[in-house]
Amino acid sequence: MRLKIAVFVSGRGSNLASIIEAIEDGAMGATIVTVVCNNPDAYAITLAKEHGLNVFVLSHKGMSREEHENKILAHLSTLEIDFVVLAGYMRVLTGNFLQAFKDAAGYFRVTNIHPALLPSFKGASGYEDAFNYGVRVSGITIHLVDEEVDHGPILAQRPFPRLADDTLHSFRERGLAVEHALYPEVLAAIANNGVESLLLKNVHGQLESTVRSEK
User: Fold this and answer.
1) Is 153 helix (H, G, I), strand (E, B) or coil?
2) Which of 13, 71, 121, 164 is spaced 20 to 30 Å from 50 by Cα?
3) How crowded is residue 187: how many other Cβ atoms within 10 Å of its Cβ?
4) Where do the structural domains in the chain lie, given as residue ranges?
5) pTM score, two decimals?
């Protein structure tokens, strides 16, 4: 299937850029129907317009969360969208928003990328928290969003090492390289085989890990 996605951004849009590149290179059977941004100064807006994408910019300042989300939902309701893809969107979505994308299988058709191996280091400062904790291995998580922050069924995780001479900057840059590879791969898998295939794969992986740990 050709996956129709709405990409939500707040900043420079590096993950948006990786998704655009994968689509344009034919590595992902998807179409970006719209880009939604809550920050009028974000570079991601320029990036999206350079690629001829529909862009909806709405600052959240001066609005209640409900009012802001309802205006976004009104925009999305005019479009055909399979998944909402959070790519550096620095706003927590409420249950009211998520209900608009509830699948018959019970999950919400909203994906998020997080710069740590969930359930560890939840929150907006995943890289900083993992680095300051002194992890030897960190990673990137892509998951379905639910009504808890940085929670929901995990679709994929990919580790990367912390090197002895790492600074926070080099640590983050290594993580970003993983982000930019993993998100398009996950979206391509959803387009090709459906999100259920990733959920099933992750459950099997967890069961295998449990069996190995009990031996």
Assistant:
1) coil
2) 71
3) 27
4) 3-214
5) 0.92
Residue 37 pLDDT > 90, yes or no? yes
- pLDDT score of 201: 75
Q: Which of 103, 112, 110, 100 is nearest to 70 (CA)?
A: 100
143: tokens are 């998951």
| Helix pair 126-133, 168-193: axis angle to 10 deg | 130
110, two tokens: 């909203």
Q: Which among 153, 57, 139, 72 has a CA at the least distance from the CA of 111?
A: 153
Q: Cis peptide before 119, with omega less than 30 degrees from 0?
A: yes
Q: How far is CA 59 from CA 47, 65, 72, 209, in A?
A: 18, 11, 11, 44
- 22, with CB counted inside 10 A (0-12, 13-18, 19+), is buried
Q: Please give the average per-residue pLDDT across 49-62, as a whole number.
A: 97
Work out the number of other CB atoms within 10 angstroms of the CB of residue 192: 12
Fold of 3-214: Rossmann fold (3.40.50)
Q: Are strands 83-86 and 55-57 parallel, antiparallel or unpaired?
A: unpaired
Contact (CB, 8 A) for 48 and 35: yes
Q: CA-to-CA distance for 131 and 102, rounded, in angstroms?
A: 35
3-state class (DSSP) for residue 69: helix
Instruction: Say how far apart CA 127 and CA 132 lie, in whole Å.
Output: 8
Enumerate the active-site residues: 114
Strands (E), 25-161: 30-37, 55-57, 83-86, 110-114, 137-144, 154-161
First to last CA, the chain: 41
